[in-house]
Amino acid sequence: MMNRTCRKSKPLRSVITIVGFLGGFAVGVSTVRAAGKTVILATTTSTQDSGLLDILVPIFERRSGYLVKTVSVGTGQARALAGRGEADVVLVHAPEAEKRYIAEGTLINRRLVMHNDFIIVGPRADPARVRGPKKATDAFRRIAEAKATFVSRGDESGTNMLEKRLWKQAGVEPQGDWYLQSGQGMGQTLWIVSEKQAYALADRGTYLAFRKKIALDILVERDQPLLNIYSVMEVNPSRFPKVNVAGGKAFADFMVSAEAQIVIKTFGTEKFGESLFFPDAGKREEELGR
């Protein structure tokens, strides 16, 4: 479907493109905020690609009167926007990194919103014989030993951070012609993985949203390290006085509200036969995945 060229391991980023985008974005921030009724949401591609925000954002806008400007990027870039005060609220899925940002004072009021899980997907033929092992690290070792094509997002997203951690735990330094980096979001990466009949780490929600359009099977799932936790955080106004404090808090409050949590609980059941996410407002991380 797509004719994109994957980059091999440790590629040079398209720095000019990224800087140009973020620079242009920053120029528009002051204009957007002048109205006072716009909330800038920095979030991951998975919340966008799954279609969840297409449901939640309009509800929030109708209830609150705010207009949401969604910037859908990898978790690393979303945090970077927050770290420069170029967002009002953040919805991401990288707990360890989130806690660092909270500790340093860039973000405040971290609250659990929902979870799903990561899965390892690949071709039905499964040349690396990944299907079967319950441990994600065992599957990664088999892929590396077989030198079967693996496509990484390579974008410092929450998915990419977990993938790196799994390679390290597996005792593998992924490199060579078999290890590719897409530099794309989850949905675009799944297109590439399907075209190449390769392996990848993906979040279940995006996979289910794309399942009928791609030729990939779930090969490994339900391993505890594959739990995928999403949190909402506000950008600290004491560090960035120009953020929309009221708007950012209003969106964060909405995401953990009973109304939003019901939407999250039922989202995907009609179309996919199962929920894409599980609501977690008010819970603790250690309670999840049990």
Please describe what this structure looks like.
The protein is an alpha/beta fold. The protein folds into two domains: 15-115 and 228-287, D-Maltodextrin-Binding Protein, domain 2; 117-226, Periplasmic binding protein-like II (D-Maltodextrin-Binding Protein, domain 2, 3-Layer(aba) Sandwich). Helix content is 42%, strand content 21%. It is built from twelve helices and eleven strands. It has helices spanning 15-34, 45-49, 52-64, 75-83, 95-104, 136-146, 158-170, 186-196, 204-210, 245-255, 258-266, 269-272, and strands at residues 7-8, 38-44, 67-73, 89-92, 107-122, 150-152, 179-181, 200-203, 217-220, 227-235, 278-279. Strands 2, 3, 4, 5, 8, 9, 10 and 11 form an eight-stranded mixed β-sheet that branches. The chain has a three-stranded mixed β-sheet with strand order 1-7-6, with helices on one face. 47% of the residues are buried. Residues 1-34 have low confidence and may be disordered.
